[in-house]
Structures are given as structure tokens and as C-alpha cells.
């Protein structure tokens, strides 16, 4: 699992470009990576089959990094958008040749809001199957986004979206559901055509919501905002793993991929970005508007057996119950903001929530 | 020149959006309401932002007549604006913007849009030019709108005039398409088997609450929601009328060619992800660098891609009687460079956004559209 985080200045609530200094002092440089902006930092866990072990590693990585950030006078924070950034913020880019090149080529897109997401890698060693898995995942992207929406604030105010990250990130070329592809060869040809066109600089810039990884034997699901807590991240990983296992069974039994109408798939994704878990969702296959939670229930019905087989069902059920009671990451940000109408306080609260041991429920239940 | 070609060329009409600026401060101002009171309602209408007015031309078969009417409409708007201390700018964006001073038009539909789309609506300070090509048959309009998707980025490149957005140089020749992209239902139109299937898809989007009416289908090229046409929506507003005329001429030739292809049952292969990539490329570099050639997918210098497109359309351009005019306008457009490049040149020379606004005001006012003398013979 890869998790991207912001570094915020606790005095101003704004982004702090200190990633390089934090990198210099972490003890596990193999697990911590720079990101595009100097105010972002990324962790990459080892692969796990036991998600209890994944949780322990995520907690440890968040904790270590959070400590290092504090020593550098800033706060590690898990949220999809930086509340005080806007579409022309121009946060400094990490000092690295590839990132400098991206900043030059993509101009104002690269200067706009920075985004923190979380990427789940699920092992699918057969490349043909990995391409098929991406085809089968397409109708589920809106639900996965709604589950993890954690970026309502931008430009110092509520954007009106549960995931502003999904909207801001959409400006980059290739962001969106992957095209339906018939084979690994067709995947290769499409990626080559994109690179040849000069529009993306390398394969790592294929920003489809799911893709066969270009460097690992995995399918990489890239749809989510970074989750507010390690516990939510692990539950999300369990859901993605079970979904991949479920569609793999379909693929092996010869079931063709579902073909939701393209316009509806995009509409459903937009609706998920706007409403998150708390509002309406859109079933991309039927086009029917339904409460977002109904889509989650549909997903759970679909992947329940795979979750049970992996031993993850109790953990995921409990986490979804808590999300239902306490609200999504986005809803909790809004609730904390509403308590005192102070965005600066909300940013500080997010930093506490990110660090392990933070009890997300207390301030909300007390309100 | 004259009506040497086929008896009934496809008609073309244009909807142009203009920014309303204060001629003293050169800032965008929310005063379209006042301006519209003095303009005929059947030709001018409000837009989402109160800093924007839209002009609608009639459909024409001769490009020269279209140019004449666009010039007349602009003259009318400029005269009305003049008395109010205002000016109008035909460009994708303007460099001087004060977000807080601008308010959404007081119209229930737009209020609803603000409610539904939030931050997306507030930043929608952009103007486009829509070209309508008359296709009475809706089945054909649906088929052609999808099949033409790969050519839209090239037409966008010819119109690029929105390098500045919210007061900054974006690095793009046209930032407007990137602002658009954030709306649901923007981008290349998917394939629909029939007009009924298309209409059903729109009805579904409305039922689902994603959009409130068919006018909110923002595909780069779409069957029009209100007239029997296929509509090119991807282009920035163009300061010079001659660029609009060029785009209109090329668009109707593309439509004519694709209509033949549909009738003959010729296959097509539209890959939306590559069209989106080509759109990004065109938005980034306009006429000043490479474009993705729709024919083959390779990057080539813009002049070469456009030259190949014009050559490929020669039979349709000749048949419509547009060949001489379109080739002449193409040469001029390529020699002049994009509006974005001209704006940046003025900015770099005089160091001010006010000078960019003055350039755009002056170009919008020009009445010597390039083709007039040749066409009048």
C-alpha cells in the first residue's frame, strides 16, 4: 500500500515544503519516498497477506514519519487536499529532475492544488489477467471513491465536494477509468501510443484509476483519497483485495467484463466525488440514483464471500459500521470545522487523526 | 469565388461568447445585464457568469456571409458597451479577474448549477465559440459527433486564446479546456448506436441527477440540444473573426466527409483516451509546437498537422466552394500564430496585463476580416 501525506505548518495550517529534510532523517528510506511537491511525502508498505500485519506496518510508518515531521516543525497529515491551497497555489516542487520536468511540461496543472491519494497494489502476476481485472473493476470506481472521500476543503473554504482531490486531479491527462482493453498487447500498444504522442512523459504517468503496475506484478488501484486513519486504509485495502479476488473468479469462469455506458460511469464518478458516502450515489450500470451507502451494500454483497475467505469480513464490517456512525473522512472534516468554524483548528485536528493512537471518534461523539 | 460546388453546402452558424471588461481598469466586470438590456434579445443572451454575453448568428451557406454577420453582431455589442464604459473581448480567458467581484447570473437554472457544482461554477470564467453545422437527420448527427472526436483537438489548436487564468500565465495556450474537463459529461462523445440510444443516455443522466437538462451535455462535439445541427464546442472564443470563419469552414468540411463515410458504411476507430491526450497537447501548445496528428497518432509540428488536414479535406472544401478561402485563411493563421502567442508577446514586451486586454479589445473590434476583399469579387 502506498499512502501520500501532506506536511503542514502548525502555525499557519498551510503546506510546509520540508519533505527533503524529513527524508534525510527517517530510518527506513526504502519505505519512504518523495512526492511531486516538497510538501508531500509517501510511504510504501511491504506486501502482506495478513492485513493485521499491514495495519501494524502502516501504523508504524505513520508514527515514525509523524515523529520526524514534528522534529522538523511540521505535521504529517492524511487528507486528499490541502485546505488552504488553491488552483494557482504554486507549492514548490521536489528538487528532482523528473519532477522539475513534469512541472515545466504541465504548467498550471502542476502549479495547482496538490493531491494526496492512496494506492493499493494487489498481486496479479499474470499480465493478461491483470488487464482483465482492470476491465472488471470499472463499475466499482465510484463506490471506492465514495468510501474514501477525504478532501472537502480547498482555497480556504468548503468546495462543495467530498473529494475535491478527485476533481483537481482530473486535470492531468489520462486521469479516469482505464479504457476497456482486450489483452496485455493492447494495453502495451495504448500506453506506447500515449507516450509516443508526447502527452505523457513515461509509463508512470498513466494515471488511470486502475492499471497493471509498470514495475510490480500487481494491479494498482489508484482511485482513493488518502485515508484519514491507518485503520480505514487497511479496511479499504481489504475491500480492494476482495474485489480483485472476486472479479478474478469471474474472469476465470469466462464472464465478460460489465460494460457500463461511458457517460454514466463518468457521471457516477463525479457524483461520488461530490457526495462521498453521505449523499446520493449513482449506479453506473443502471443509471439509478441511490444513497451512496446502497452502493456500498451492493459492493459488500458482491465481495462478501471473498472477504470471508480471506478472514477480513469481521474487520471490514466493523470499520464500515464506524464509518456509518461517525461519517466518512470528508464528513468528519466538515463536522470538526463546523464546531468552531475554524479551518486552522480543523487542519491541526487532521494531523492528530493521522498519527497512530488518535481516537477519531471522541471529538465528534462529544459534539 | 461563388457557388461552384454542390448545390446545398451544409449550413454553418456560430454562437460566440464575449467577456465584458471595464475599459478603464481592464478588469472583468459582472455587468452583462446592463449591456443585454440594450441589445436585441433574439441575438444576444446571458451566460452562466454575469461577466459574459453570448451572440448568436443565423445559419449561412456562404462563409463570407457568416463573417459579415459576426462582424455586424460584434459592432452592435461594442457600440452598446461603449456607452457604458465597457468593452467586449472575444477570447477564451482574460488576464485581469477579481473573483469576489463576479457573481453568477440571476437565473434559476444557473443558481441550481451553482448549488450542484459548487467550486466548478465559481471559477467558470471562460468563453468559447460554438460552431453549428446543419444536419437535419439526428441519427447522422449522433454518428458524426462521435466519429469526428479525433479532429476536435486540431480545431482547438487554431482557437487557443486562454493562456491566462485567474490572473496567472498558466503555461498553456488554452487553459479553458482544462477548466471544462472538470465538469461531468465533458470530453469526446462516446459512441451511441442510434439517436434513441443517445437520447436515452441523456435522459438517464438527467434522471440520475448528474445534469439538469440536455444543454449541460458538454461533449467536445455533440448533436445540438436545441437545433438540428452537430455542434463543435471545444474552441476558445477567437479575437479575430477570420479564425472563426476558418474553423467553421474546416468543421463543415469534416462533417461533410464524415457524413459520406457513414453513408458508405466506412469503419472508424475512435480511442477516447488518445483523443483526450491529443486535446491536452493542443491546449498546451496551440499552434506554437507539436500536435498529435489524428491520422496515425504521431506528434508533428502544428503547421504540418493542419496542412495535412486541409489537404485531406480538399474534395469537401472544393465542393462547398471554400477551398481558396480556407487555404488562404489557414496560411494567415499559421503565419500569425495563435492568439495566446500574440498575448504573451505583448505581455513580455510591455510587461502588463492591461496591454494584453487592449490587444484583445482591438482585435475583437477589427472589421477587416481577412477574406472579405477576395470573397467580394
Automatic annotation (TrEMBL), chain A:
<dbReference type="GO" id="GO:0042398">
    <property type="term" value="P:modified amino acid biosynthetic process"/>
</dbReference>
<protein>
    <recommendedName>
        <fullName>Putative glutamate--cysteine ligase 2</fullName>
        <ecNumber>6.3.2.2</ecNumber>
    </recommendedName>
</protein>
<comment type="similarity">
    <text>Belongs to the glutamate--cysteine ligase type 2 family. YbdK subfamily.</text>
</comment>
<dbReference type="InterPro" id="IPR050141">
    <property type="entry name" value="GCL_type2/YbdK_subfam"/>
</dbReference>
<keyword id="KW-0067">ATP-binding</keyword>
<comment type="function">
    <text>ATP-dependent carboxylate-amine ligase which exhibits weak glutamate--cysteine ligase activity.</text>
</comment>
<keyword id="KW-0436">Ligase</keyword>
<dbReference type="Pfam" id="PF04107">
    <property type="entry name" value="GCS2"/>
</dbReference>
<dbReference type="GO" id="GO:0005524">
    <property type="term" value="F:ATP binding"/>
</dbReference>
<dbReference type="InterPro" id="IPR011793">
    <property type="entry name" value="YbdK"/>
</dbReference>
<dbReference type="GO" id="GO:0004357">
    <property type="term" value="F:glutamate-cysteine ligase activity"/>
</dbReference>
<dbReference type="InterPro" id="IPR014746">
    <property type="entry name" value="Gln_synth/guanido_kin_cat_dom"/>
</dbReference>
<keyword id="KW-0547">Nucleotide-binding</keyword>
<dbReference type="InterPro" id="IPR006336">
    <property type="entry name" value="GCS2"/>
</dbReference>
Amino acid at each position: 500500500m502506498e499512502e501520500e501525506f501532506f506536511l503542514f505548518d502548525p502555525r499557519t495550517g498551510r503546506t510546509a515544503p520540508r519533505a527533503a529534510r524529513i527524508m534525510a532523517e527517517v530510518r527506513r528510506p526504502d519505505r519512504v519516498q518523495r512526492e511531486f511537491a516538497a510538501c508531500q511525502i509517501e510511504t510504501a508498505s511491504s506486501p502482506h497477506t495478513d492485513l493485521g500485519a499491514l495495519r501494524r506496518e502502516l501504523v508504524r510508518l505513520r508514527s515514525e514519519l509523524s515523529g520526524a515531521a514534528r522534529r522538523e516543525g511540521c505535521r504529517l497529515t492524511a487528507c486528499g487536499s490541502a485546505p488552504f491551497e488553491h488552483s494557482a497555489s504554486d507549492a514548490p516542487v521536489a528538487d528532482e529532475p523528473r519532477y522539475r520536468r513534469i512541472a515545466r511540461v504541465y504548467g498550471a496543472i502542476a502549479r495547482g492544488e496538490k493531491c494526496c491519494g492512496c494506492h493499493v497494489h494487489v498481486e496479479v502476476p499474470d499480465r493478461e489477467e491483470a488487464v482483465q481485472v482492470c476491465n472488471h473493476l470499472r463499475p466499482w470506481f465510484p463506490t471506492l471513491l465514495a468510501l474514501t472521500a477525504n478532501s472537502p476543503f480547498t482555497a480556504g473554504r468548503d468546495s462543495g465536494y467530498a473529494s475535491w482531490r478527485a476533481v483537481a486531479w482530473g486535470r492531468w491527462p489520462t486521469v479516469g477509468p482505464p479504457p476497456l482493453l482486450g489483452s496485455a498487447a493492447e494495453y502495451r500498444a495504448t500506453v506506447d501510443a500515449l507516450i509516443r504522442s508526447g502527452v505523457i512523459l513515461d509509463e508512470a504517468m498513466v494515471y488511470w484509476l486502475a492499471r497493471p503496475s509498470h514495475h510490480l506484478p500487481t494491479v494498482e488501484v489508484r482511485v482513493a483519497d488518502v485515508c484519514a486513519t491507518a485503520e480505514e486504509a487497511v479496511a479499504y485495502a481489504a475491500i480492494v483485495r476482495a474485489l480483485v479476488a472476486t472479479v478474478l473468479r469471474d474472469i476465470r469462469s469466462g464472464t465478460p467484463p460489465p460494460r457500463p455506458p461511458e457517460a454514466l460511469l463518468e457521471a457516477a464518478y463525479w457524483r461520488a466525488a461530490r457526495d462521498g458516502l453521505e449523499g446520493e450515489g449513482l449506479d453506473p450500470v443502471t443509471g439509478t440514483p441511490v444513497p451512496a451507502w446502497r452502493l456500498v451494500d451492493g459492493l459488500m454483497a458482491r465481495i462478501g464471500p471473498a472477504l470471508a475467505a480471506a478472514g477480513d469480513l469481521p474487520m471490514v464490517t466493523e470499520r464500515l459500521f464506524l464509518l456509518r456512525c461517525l461519517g466518512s473522512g470528508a464528513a468528519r472534516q466538515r463536522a470538526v470545522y463546523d464546531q468552531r468554524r475554524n479551518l486552522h483548528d480543523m487542519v491541526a485536528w487532521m494531523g492528530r487523526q493521522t498519527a497512530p493512537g488518535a481516537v477519531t471518534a471522541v471529538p465528534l461523539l462529544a459534539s | 469565388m461563388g457557388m461552384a460546388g454542390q448545390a446545398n453546402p451544409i449550413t454553418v452558424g456560430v454562437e460566440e461568447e464575449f467577456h465584458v471588461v471595464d475599459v478603464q481598469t481592464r478588469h472583468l466586470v459582472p455587468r452583462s445585464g446592463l449591456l443585454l438590456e440594450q441589445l436585441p434579445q433574439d441575438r444576444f443572451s446571458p451566460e452562466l457568469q454575469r461577466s459574459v454575453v453570448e451572440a448568436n448568428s443565423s445559419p449561412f451557406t456562404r462563409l463570407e456571409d457568416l463573417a459579415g454577420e459576426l462582424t455586424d453582431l460584434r459592432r452592435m455589442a461594442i457600440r452598446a458597451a461603449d456607452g457604458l464604459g465597457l468593452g467586449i473581448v472575444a477570447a477564451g480567458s482574460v488576464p485581469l479577474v477579481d473573483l469576489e467581484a463576479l457573481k453568477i447570473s440571476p437565473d434559476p437554472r444557473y443558481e441550481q448549477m451553482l448549488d450542484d457544482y459548487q467550486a466548478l461554477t465559481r471559477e467558470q470564467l471562460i468563453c468559447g465559440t460554438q460552431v453549428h453545422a446543419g444536419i437535419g437527420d439526428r441519427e447522422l448527427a449522433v454518428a458524426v459527433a462521435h466519429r469526428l472526436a479525433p479532429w476536435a483537438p486540431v480545431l482547438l489548436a487554431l482557437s487557443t486564446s486562454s493562456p491566462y487564468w485567474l490572473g496567472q500565465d498558466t503555461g498553456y495556450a488554452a487553459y479553458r479546456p482544462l477548466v471544462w474537463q472538470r465538469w461531468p459529461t465533458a470530453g469526446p462523445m462516446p459512441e451511441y448506436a442510434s439517436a434513441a440510444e443517445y437520447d436515452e443516455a441523456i435522459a438517464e443522466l438527467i434522471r440520475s441527477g448528474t445534469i439538469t437538462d440536455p444543454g449541460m451535455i458538454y461533449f467536445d462535439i455533440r448533436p445540438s440540444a436545441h437545433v438540428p445541427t452537430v455542434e463543435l464546442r471545444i474552441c476558445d472564443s477567437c479575437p479575430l473573426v477570420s479564425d472563426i470563419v476558418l474553423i467553421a469552414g474546416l468543421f463543415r468540411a469534416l462533417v461533410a466527409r464524415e457524413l459520406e463515410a457513414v453513408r458508405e458504411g466506412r469503419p472508424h476507430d475512435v480511442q477516447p483516451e488518445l483523443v483526450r491526450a491529443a486535446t491536452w497537447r493542443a491546449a498546451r501548445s496551440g499552434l506554437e509546437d507539436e500536435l498529435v496528428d489524428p491520422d496515425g497518432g504521431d506528434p508533428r509540428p502544428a503547421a504540418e498537422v493542419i496542412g495535412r488536414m486541409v489537404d485531406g479535406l480538399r474534395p469537401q472544401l472544393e465542393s462547398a466552394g471554400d477551398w481558396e478561402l480556407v487555404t488562404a485563411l489557414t496560411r494567415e493563421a499559421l503565419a500569425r500564430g495563435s492568439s495566446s502567442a500574440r498575448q504573451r508577446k505583448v505581455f513580455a514586451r510591455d510587461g502588463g496585463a492591461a496591454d494584453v486586454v487592449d490587444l484583445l479589445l482591438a482585435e475583437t473590434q477589427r472589421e477587416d476580416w481577412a477574406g472579405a476583399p477576395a470573397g467580394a469579387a
